[in-house]
Amino acid sequence: MSAIPFALIGAGVIGRVHARNIGSRPDARLRWVVDTDAPRGNALAAACGARFSASVDEMLADTSVRVVVIGSSTDAHEAHLLACIRAGKAVLCEKPLAGSLDGAGKCLDAARAANAIAAIGFNRRFDVHHRAVFERVRAGAIGTVESVHIVSRSYEASAPAAAHRAGGLLREKGTHFYDLAFWLAGSEPEEVYAAGGCLFDQGYAAYGDVDTAALTLRFASGALATMSFSRRTTYGYDEMIEVFGSRGMLQSERQRSRGVSFYQGDKVIADGIHSGWYERFAPTYVAELDALIAAVVAGLPADPGLADGMRAQAVAEAAVASLRQGKPVAIPNVWQEV
Amino acid sequence: MSAIPFALIGAGVIGRVHARNIGSRPDARLRWVVDTDAPRGNALAAACGARFSASVDEMLADTSVRVVVIGSSTDAHEAHLLACIRAGKAVLCEKPLAGSLDGAGKCLDAARAANAIAAIGFNRRFDVHHRAVFERVRAGAIGTVESVHIVSRSYEASAPAAAHRAGGLLREKGTHFYDLAFWLAGSEPEEVYAAGGCLFDQGYAAYGDVDTAALTLRFASGALATMSFSRRTTYGYDEMIEVFGSRGMLQSERQRSRGVSFYQGDKVIADGIHSGWYERFAPTYVAELDALIAAVVAGLPADPGLADGMRAQAVAEAAVASLRQGKPVAIPNVWQEV
Amino acid sequence: MSAIPFALIGAGVIGRVHARNIGSRPDARLRWVVDTDAPRGNALAAACGARFSASVDEMLADTSVRVVVIGSSTDAHEAHLLACIRAGKAVLCEKPLAGSLDGAGKCLDAARAANAIAAIGFNRRFDVHHRAVFERVRAGAIGTVESVHIVSRSYEASAPAAAHRAGGLLREKGTHFYDLAFWLAGSEPEEVYAAGGCLFDQGYAAYGDVDTAALTLRFASGALATMSFSRRTTYGYDEMIEVFGSRGMLQSERQRSRGVSFYQGDKVIADGIHSGWYERFAPTYVAELDALIAAVVAGLPADPGLADGMRAQAVAEAAVASLRQGKPVAIPNVWQEV
Amino acid sequence: MSAIPFALIGAGVIGRVHARNIGSRPDARLRWVVDTDAPRGNALAAACGARFSASVDEMLADTSVRVVVIGSSTDAHEAHLLACIRAGKAVLCEKPLAGSLDGAGKCLDAARAANAIAAIGFNRRFDVHHRAVFERVRAGAIGTVESVHIVSRSYEASAPAAAHRAGGLLREKGTHFYDLAFWLAGSEPEEVYAAGGCLFDQGYAAYGDVDTAALTLRFASGALATMSFSRRTTYGYDEMIEVFGSRGMLQSERQRSRGVSFYQGDKVIADGIHSGWYERFAPTYVAELDALIAAVVAGLPADPGLADGMRAQAVAEAAVASLRQGKPVAIPNVWQEV
Predict the structure, then answer these.
(1) Angle A267-D243-D320 from CA coordinates, rounded to 5°
(2) pLDDT tens across D95-104, in order?
(3) Do B263 and C248 touch (CB under 8 A)?
(4) Which of A136, A252, A258, A267 to mutate to test the interface with D (most CBs of D within 10 A)?
(5) How many angstroms separate the CA atoms of D34 and D69, rounded?
(6) Entry pTM
């Protein structure tokens, strides 16, 4: 089998991660790097032995390209997704799906109409620890899921303006975890309550954004998820999940960077958690690509797909509204096929 | 110094714990056991070498009694507290403080007017693990507290009717943790949102009660606490606390009953958490008594005292209202001296 | 049932532990405290409401005394044990059994001839963690025991002269762990190799003693135990056991004093192990007394008994010889009834 | 910089690991695969885009080859090493260095005479956990090293004949850990005592080999290392290290395959250790190759090098003698340059 031709839109941090992962596979080949920033795009293309273009259309005109990874800025996702789907490509789009719920809906409709293989970059689902929890929940190890608790605390806070451009805490960070909570609870989200504030940097307030949040998500099954978010810690990237059910509890534990303990004085000092999200989750980007390639080869739908992206985005919009209104907000089910 | 004369009102489960702990101290002596159930009260009195009475008044007439431990049913707390305070006794009252916020307020007013040594039985504050977390938070180890997460899951669910008589999940279980959250956050609670449902036993619904709940508490400082409650687990009594701040995170870990691990197959099977709350927290009842005796000997206020009980009760009433109304409810500050 | 009358020989550190534990039981009563140091003995007797005597014979003449706890210095054990057994008392003797293997043998013979209830103070067997490991090994959880590893490191080193008087590292510390290894391996010890040295204090060398040792014990079953001893740590009293068998591995983990973790910087800083052996093992002295009283009440042999003390002492003498000779030394089986 | 040309001798399990790792580096290129088993060698060569030869000489005649990785059978190491060194190649030789101490000595002499870059495949030194312990020991975190304990238990036992061909337990498994112990103790080994037996398979006895062993290693500094080896477990590949010193203790903990815990009944069931040594140590082969390439590029000696291989082999021969003779055996220092 010859290698599957890939294109990449966006040569930023996450784009470079995808380029490296595509490059390390014998069954994939990166043909194009597209970026509006020509020097950046050219540099990555050169390093990968790919062609550079500033134009998505030029790349899409190359009929040999089968898969496009979209790592452009969030507000460009909609246009890029629609163009790729129209051109008959399989896609992997970074989250969040689009800059607005409407835009996300158009993408989802287009993908459904075209029967496209369209994946959303919810890489957390590919973490071996989280996935092992998921599989056991599905296998019935804990019976019926009754509650979920998710901690996600970034290591370094984005500056307020950049954070706003990325959608704010409840969209940028949140979508990952709304999706995880749905995936683990095995039930559709119906209502969200978001409390939050600027506890360490008032700068976010100017954008209606927060640095700290606590969320409650209610699912159709009655299960409740709580989430605790922060934009920064002093001890690394902190992510942890507990799923409690009628027959037991499963934990995806905090992961430490090294298994070293030091006994001294009245303390046992262990090496701590990973310093950043990438150090913690690098393997998930590889696994996500594996899953996409497997779907492309088999001609099967992507999982998670655009409907999952749409669901998370609907939760995010309701969470933003809840934060503003100070009360729980119902989540309209806009992701289910009618 | 001769032993301090104690009386005990209530010879139920918790009354027997207090009787045993008083009996094991050389500096305390249990003189009276009062209970409306004569056989039960007589039996405990006999076992402890104390006198039995069915009448609180008869016991209070014994001017040698210095301290009364109130372990009667919740709806009797108010009358017993008022009588003891009027009689000039020091008291330790089991939580919740009273059957209603009004009743609790009367007790608090009476205690303040009489300058009584009046303790509330928030035994969790005396757990060595929780207390070590508290002390480090106060010492500034994690900087400013930004969020708190508390898990409390009972091992065996009370039947719906009994649970209702005890005040329901948000009062009976909740008051312990509203107090802990305040204590750890170091700030007064202002608003609470309670979500919950009957996920495994619809019988609670008839009483407006739930078996599962998720709460969000907002403090004056802006700090947010989340709580995850359940009426039962299949794996023991589950309690865990995380306090996150601007300079680090402190955890009061789940406690295992034994430090034994078994490596077999692809698992490491460790001895689990304690089977029940008493197995987990037995030492706290001893420590709580120590603190009370120290206060009595020194003539100092009890800590935690009735104002702490009043605060927790105010949160509980707001939480119950929130659950009913489906939105956050403000907590009137009724515990502060004006 | 009236309380069992006890006497205590030795009012030192360990004697005071026993006195306190006897005093806290409703079914036991300390009648006598015997010590050659009259002020010390008198003080303890007074505190316990017991009579003091400088004479073991005077105490033994009190026919009401049923049980004697021997906490005198090691070189006095033999005389005290023989006198108590002759007087028909049940005994609990602190380890090591006697100052010499010959002396230990005489005690064992006397106890066997008299059919005495005679316990040896191997308190480690009463640790709930160690005992849970033992019970699962016996229940077959790990199949056939193939190897055992034991760590024991004291917190504070005894001064060389005092350490020598207590028998040296391989006797004083060692006997606990030779007994544990036998108990866990379920097989008689046949050969021992002891390596060691003065790694931090040359003062022990003057007495032929060491501050650090590594031992290998071979059992009749072929199982091998390794032990790592030190006279001091900078991080508390360190004890840990691993038992490896044909079907799995069991661990009696290091016990931490508190379940508190602090996340900061690139570390997770947990509260460490107990500062001293007493903090770690206080409950075992209570459980050891429970077992003795149960044996006395039922008229059953003590477990562990003097034969266990004799075995451990035989291993100790062989270990001392091995250290001196620099090669493994066979352990003559002097503890089995012929 | 153009890619460094590599050759590989041996297309077995470990050879394939090296081939894959060389192939994944942009700065290295596998040119030759040499094996006496032509189908096996050809297959690997084809998969890697390398040439195959059954002849080491043919490969060595290719002057472009700079580095040779020797993964042939142990008895062939000597001839292959000498030939490569003579041909001026840098080498990485799998452990043990040679089939005999004499043979190992010839290789070491040749490498010294030629000033060759000659690495020995002690991959454990490249484990991030072990290495972090090493670096902190070197940095003085635990003061002076006083004792070391190493556990190594294979998951699946080799059959007796194959185990014998590989040198037996004390050579094949042992050399890794004699080297680790030296590396961590920071002192030369002087004496070894090996006890062992056939506890689960008498088949090893026919070859003078064992399935279970306990070793004590004494270093020039006085430090003592204990080791506990087994040929199989029922719970995965088990490796753990503790280094105890005058100022603390460092642990390279058992590594679990996943950070998932399941609370059910009276147990906490965690995902266990890795099923095999390769799953546990795969990254170390990559890191070992990184270090070799860095040495080749910089023209610096390899670390660990042949002298380290020679030391470990000398310990192994003394351990085998100790096992046979039943007493400690001195280790002649044959690895130091005179």
Answers:
(1) 160
(2) 999 989 999 9
(3) yes
(4) A258
(5) 10
(6) 0.96
